[in-house]
Design goal:
heterodimer; A: about 260 residues; alpha/beta; Rossmann fold; six-stranded mixed beta sheet; four-stranded antiparallel beta sheet; 9 helices; globular; B: about 300 residues; mainly alpha; ABC transporter involved in vitamin B12 uptake, BtuC; about 75% helix; about 0% strand
Chain lengths: ~260, ~300
């Protein structure tokens, strides 16, 4: 099963933000979107997650149109982590992660166990009783990551689940970037379809099963990182000269600029 | 009351004057505080209060219009309610509807636009109020300003029962929205991704606020401070989780208004102070102490 976008276009206030995009996000795979600023990555995420209606085309989750799912069912299948959070109230970390359990009726004890496990997974157990408003940027983002993980912690009867992350590693130090990638891979192994925007091409190359390059509102290239990341493409899309080497250990492409 | 009152007289004072006033104070305080908590959650802003959506400003204009044009003493067809109360309620609801319409597009209601529209409509209401005051004679002026200070003095059983009915609606519907309000604090699109029908709940909460504040203001005048500061104080004490914040705010609001009204009634005997003066005088210092304490902790 999958999230499928058919011929998506989005026009907003006179601009063509997306043009004729066909894209399949398969369950069990890590899909990474890369592209220059203003390429349409965020617009694409917003259309795929139902925040904006496309001007043309449609989005299917597990073969059913996005809007045919009830809001509750959709929340069981799809969790979304935005780039920035507006949260400005002094919840504890455990309370923030607990918000991810709103779509579920698993009961207090089970929810508490999931909250503790999710916080432990993102290396934030020590934050459990701390106030969100007093945390650093990286700590806040880890707590938010734990929240969306808690939302799809258990498999759903409704079908395969999906996790959408908009630049999840932007506020993270090196070790937490690595941690995020390993969490994302574990989820994919469990059958969750992951879609994530990344800016660092080398991080993308390390974790992507499917690398999608977005440019000017269209998909420039997609496939395995080995196939997609070429000198010519990087010059064409990012206007940067580069050398493509091979990662000595992981054997994935290494972009050197 | 003095020592010469007959027992029956005392009983009728308690039953006909004191008891409905006590009930009205408790309910108005609870409703204003719980709706303040709701507005702060909806606007994701701890400084929001029910007057932000224009309801208080509109109610003020409605009341002033009635006082200036009709002298204010007339009773409306609704038992026990003065025309001033009716004017205030209608004024409050109309302004809220205007603010809501301005902020609602095909994409839904924008709380930011609503906040700004509330300020704009509030300014218009303020100007109207000044205009009406300018054309009032001395007696009308005094009536307008006393009404704006908030007063529970005119309480009777009709008012108390009307307030009880409205409170019942509010207190039975709001707890069901506590989880949604928690999710709202994350942001609207996050709440939507958590499976919450944001637009429907927003509409319902705005409607309940217009109803609750509209009726409170109609029955007791403008009682400031309770809706803004009580939820804020309670949040400092027990945190922002609406499942606890909503009932605790209602209790704290009821207590504050009851204490304030009791003092207002006896402090300058044989006269009475408007209750709104006392809520601010009692609550604000307590709030400052809480802020100082919180400053020490951070």
């Amino acid at each position: 099963m999958s999230i499928v976008a058919n011929d998506l276009s989005l026009h907003l206030s006179g601009f063509d933000l997306l043009r004729n995009i066909d894209l399949t996000i398969e369950a069990g795979k890590v899909n990474v979107l890369v592209g220059p600023n203003g390429a349409g990555k965020s617009s694409l995420l917003r259309v795929l997650t139902g925040e904006i209606k496309p001007s043309k085309g449609d989005v299917l989750i597990n073969q059913q149109p996005l809007n045919d799912w009830s809001m509750q069912d959709r929340a069981n299948l799809l969790a979304v982590l935005p780039q920035h959070s507006e949260l400005n109230f002094p919840f504890t970390a455990a309370e923030v992660v607990g918000l991810g359990r709103i779509p579920h009726k698993t009961g207090f004890a089970k929810d508490q166990a999931i909250i503790a496990e999710a916080l432990a997974l993102v290396d934030a157990s020590y934050l459990q009783r701390r106030l969100y408003t007093q945390m650093s940027g990286g700590e806040k983002q880890r707590v938010q990551l734990a929240r969306v993980l808690a939302q799809i912690w258990q498999p759903s009867d409704l079908g395969e689940q999906f996790l959408v992350l908009d630049e999840p590693t932007a506020a993270f130090d090196l070790s937490h970037q690595q941690l995020t990638l390993s969490i994302v891979k574990q989820l994919a192994d469990r059958g969750v379809g992951v879609l994530m925007v990344l800016h660092d091409l080398n991080l993308a190359a390390r974790c992507a099963d499917n690398l999608v390059v977005v440019n000017g509102g269209t998909i420039e290239a997609s496939g395995t990182p080995e196939k997609v990341l070429t000198k010519e493409l990087i010059h064409q899309v990012f206007d940067v000269q580069s050398v493509i080497a091979e990662h000595p250990v992981a054997k994935t492409p290494l972009v050197i600029t | 009351m003095g020592g010469h009152s007959e027992p029956s007289q005392i009983q009728s004072i308690i039953m006909e004057i004191r008891l409905p006033r006590l009930i009205l104070a408790l309910l108005v305080g609870a409703v204003l505080a719980i709706l303040g908590a709701v507005m702060q959650g909806l606007f994701r802003n701890p400084l929001a209060d029910p007057s932000l959506i224009g309801v208080s400003g509109g109610a003020s204009v409605g009341a002033s219009i009635v006082i200036v044009t009709a002298g204010g003493a007339m009773l409306s067809p609704l038992a026990g309610l003065s025309m001033v109360a009716l004017g205030a309620f209608i004024g409050g609801v109309i302004t809220t509807l205007v603010v809501y319409r301005v902020a609602t597009s095909s994409l839904g209601t924008s709380v930011t636009t609503m906040l700004l529209a509330g300020i704009a409509i509030g300014a218009i209401a303020g100007a109207f109020n000044s205009l009406l005051s300018y054309f009032s004679d001395n007696q009308m002026l005094r009536q307008i300003s006393v009404w704006q200070m908030g007063n529970l003095g005119g309480a009777n059983w009709q008012k108390a029962s009307l307030m009880a009915a409205v409170s019942l609606i509010i207190f039975s519907l709001l707890p069901g929205h506590a989880k949604s309000l928690n999710a709202f604090l994350l942001g609207e699109s996050e709440a939507r991704h958590l499976g919450i029908d944001v637009q429907r709940i927003k509409r319902q909460l705005i409607f309940l606020t217009a109803l609750g504040v509209g009726v409170s203001v109609a029955l007791a005048g403008l009682i400031g401070f309770v809706g803004l500061v009580i939820p804020h104080m309670v949040r400092l004490l027990i945190g922002p989780d609406h499942r606890a914040l909503l009932p605790a705010s209602a209790l704290a609001g009821a207590s504050l208004l009851l204490i304030a009204d009791s003092i207002a009634r006896v402090v300058v005997l044989p006269a009475e102070l408007p209750t709104g003066i006392l809520t601010a005088l009692l609550g604000a210092p307590f709030f400052v102490v809480l802020l100082l304490k919180q400053r020490g902790e951070i």
